[in-house]
Amino acid sequence: MIEKSSIKIEAEPYPFALTAASCALLILDMQRDFLEPGGFGEMLGNDVSQVRHAIEPNRQLLMAWRAAGLLVIHAREGHRPDLTDLPEAKRKRGWGKTSIGDHGPMGRILVRGEKGHDIIPELYPLPSEPVIDKPGKGAFYATDLHTILQNHGIKQLVITGVTTEVCVHTTVREANDRGYECLVPHDCVASYFPHFHEVGLKMITAQGGIFGWVSDSTRIRAVLPKKL
Ligand code: TIU
Question: Which residues constitute the domain of residue 119?
Answer without folding.
Answer: 6-223
